[in-house]
Amino acid sequence: MQSLGIDVLFKGTNMLRLLQGLWVSVAISLISVAFSIVLGFIVGVLMTSENKIIKAILRVYLEIVRIMPQMVLLFIVYFGTTRVFGWNLSAEVSAIIVFIFWGTAEMGDLVRGSLKSIPVIQYESAKALGLNNFQVYFHIIVPQTIRRLIPLSINLITRMVKTTSLVMMIGIVEVLKVAQQIIEANRKASPNAAFGVFLVVFILYFLICWPVSRLAKILEKRWA
Amino acid sequence: MKNNWLKKLLATVATVALAGSFLVGCDSAGGSTDNTSGVKYRTLDEIKASGKINIGVFSDKSPFGYVDENGKYAGYDVYFAEKIGEDLGVEINYVSTEAANRIEYLQTGKVDIILANFTVTPERAEEVDFALPYMNVALGVVSPSDAVITSLDEIGADDEVIVISGTTAETYLTKNYPNIKLQKYDAYAQAKTAFENRNGVAWANDNTEVIAFAIENEGYTVGIPSLGDQDTIAPAVTKGNETLLKWLNDEIVAIGADNFFHADYEATLLDTYGSDYEDELVVESGIVK
After folding, report:
1. In this predicted complex, what is the ipTM?
2. Is A1 within a domain?
């Protein structure tokens, strides 16, 4: 194990710090994902609306999220709001705002796509069976939408977890930053630590993302 | 269909315009609100009253600013920061900064002082106020020993040189050698890993950095130990923060009388550079010899 440099993780409180860093990443993504799913549903339904103004606004919103790198959004929310409005948002709050802003737009677009992909005949047949509007959605449309949504949203969720590594740019010490700190602090004693430490970080990310994707598989099967 | 295309085009144009104006808005606001808004920086008295000072340091740049195995900040910059906290009689809140966001942190008042190996340049001096220097620095270029680069002319058209975004090495090479392809990384650790994996033929950085790197890692040679002008490293405060700047300058002069920075060097840098570089690197009382 010496050559891998994993031993540096057992020095002092290094491993504990790495796990604390992981918790920071997970906490930011959990909160953001939860809000994004709820808000994304609302935005997604609004996106299917026929109202031109709503459509245009949401279109602009989605394009902003797509065009802007997340790093730019982080800088705008963390530093920009202080410059322009004098707000002093904490780095964590800024990060969560950015991730919700991003997640909601992408989730909304996924919801819109899933809703649109349900054939019109499903609505018409349901109506023909005498179901009212609420029943049509509750029993026919929403279950099918959710089933189509799961693989797509898992993709988004794991992407959000991984993108939390950017928050180090606004001073949040998350798992990847801790890894870099550990590697640097030990660069004399164990110059090869980079491989071992990044390997552990890889496993940690995997342990977070894999259960999510397993859960999705199970749900998909159960609801198929 | 035609209508649909038009809509899309319009939406895109509107988006770009909006995004653009937002960015420009941020930019122009930064230049003009420095002296009108009170949130921008905290004066010396405000810092003392709050009992806490926010100091931006590197957390992954050993031996200048790093975090040791017990999670405590350490290094040459941090040793000085500790002294500042002690003499001001306040607690220190360390903020982990990256090379690329140091100025931003000061301009938004999110830290009071940057002590992150900050090289003094005329461009930066327009954005922030530098106190007296406490270290000398020049640029250096390190390359693998089996393919040492001793002059920038040796770099081929397809070769890439590794730099860290926002450092003086990046600015210097972009300005003076626009033909050299640069490979830019945001964090120090990323650049180091990339260099070790031979993603670039050489790594340009502060010479202290590359000398330390070559001493610690076998198989690397500093082919160009001194490039460009001799620069200095100094603490920086938000532009216009006169009270804090004056206090810092007085402090640097005062502790220089006791050779504080030599003690700092011996406590933090001696292991890395040996005693040969001590007088060359250390600046006492802000007097560059």
Report:
1. 0.80
2. no
